[in-house]
Design brief:
Blueprint: H1 2-15, E1 20-24, H2 31-44, E2 49-53, H3 59-69, H4 78-102, E3 106-110, H5 113-122, H6 128-139, E4 146-151, H7 154-160, H8 173-189, E5 194-198, H9 203-219
Helix pairs in contact: 1-9, 2-9, 3-4, 4-6, 5-6, 5-8
C-alpha cells in the first residue's frame, strides 16, 4: 500500500489544486471518516485544503445548522427545510468556497447540493427541478467537479449511528431507504460528476477503494 500511497500523492499534488469535491452518502455511511483521511493525505501531498461541512461552515451557516438539526423542530415542513439548507449553502459559497477555489485550493465539502436533491427531493417528496432551480440561485451555478457517494444498506448504516440521533437521522428506516435509492439514481444519471463507493465493508477496505477510484478520476481531469 505504501507504493500506492506515494503514487496517489503525486497524482493528488498535480491534479487537486483548484478542484471542488463533495463527499456524500446516507447517515451512517462512514463518509466523514473517509473525508478526514482524504483531506489529511492531500495535505501530506502538499495541497492546500479548504474543508467545509453542510449545513454550516460559516458563523451564519452554523446557526442555521442548529435550527435544522434540533429535534424540537419536528413540525418543520420539507420546503422550509430545503430553503434553510440552501441559505446556509449560499453563505458558504460566497464566504468560503469561491474564494478558496480562486486561490487554487482544493475544496472538500462534507455534503453539498446532492444531499438536498436526495433528502428533501427523493426522500422528502419535493421535485428535483424545483430544488435544482433554487440551488442554481444559492450557488450561482457552482457544482462540485466530483461527488463521491458512499453507498451502504440501511441496516448497516443504522447500526453505525449514535443513539442520540439528530432530527434528520431520526426520520426512520423507510425515509433512509429512499435516501439511498436517491443517491444511486444520481450516480446512474450523472456518471460524469458522481462516483459510488461500496461503504458496507471494513473502513480500511473502503479507504483503499476510495483512494483508487479518486486517483483514477483525478488523473483524467
Amino acid at each position: 500500500m505504501d507504493a500506492r500511497i506515494e503514487q496517489a500523492k503525486q497524482v493528488m499534488a498535480a491534479g487537486l489544486p483548484g478542484m471542488f469535491i463533495a463527499f456524500e452518502g446516507p447517515d451512517g455511511s462512514g463518509k466523514s471518516t473517509q473525508f478526514r483521511r482524504f483531506a489529511a493525505l492531500a495535505r501530506e501531498a502538499g495541497v492546500t485544503v479548504c474543508e467545509v461541512r453542510e449545513p454550516g461552515g460559516t458563523p451564519i451557516g452554523e446557526q442555521i445548522r442548529h435550527v435544522l438539526l434540533d429535534r424540537q423542530n419536528e413540525v418543520m415542513c420539507v420546503r422550509c427545510e430545503m430553503l434553510l439548507y440552501m441559505a446556509s449553502r449560499a453563505q458558504l459559497v460566497e464566504q468560503t468556497i469561491r474564494p478558496a477555489l480562486a486561490a487554487g485550493q482544493l475544496v472538500l465539502a462534507d455534503r453539498f447540493v446532492a444531499s438536498t436533491l436526495v433528502y428533501q427531493g427523493a426522500a422528502g417528496g419535493m421535485g428535483q427541478d424545483e430544488i435544482a432551480a433554487v440551488a442554481a440561485v444559492a450557488t450561482g451555478g457552482l457544482e462540485p467537479d466530483l461527488n463521491v457517494v458512499f453507498d451502504v444498506d440501511t441496516e448497516t448504516a443504522s447500526g453505525r449511528l449514535s443513539p442520540l440521533l439528530d432530527r434528520m437521522e431520526a426520520k426512520g428506516r423507510a425515509f433512509h431507504e429512499k435516501v439511498r435509492a436517491g443517491y444511486q439514481g444520481l450516480v446512474r444519471s450523472r456518471p460524469d460528476r458522481y462516483v459510488s463507493i461500496d461503504a458496507s465493508r471494513d473502513p480500511e477496505e473502503v479507504w483503499k477503494s476510495c483512494l483508487e477510484t479518486m486517483v483514477g478520476r483525478i488523473s483524467r481531469k
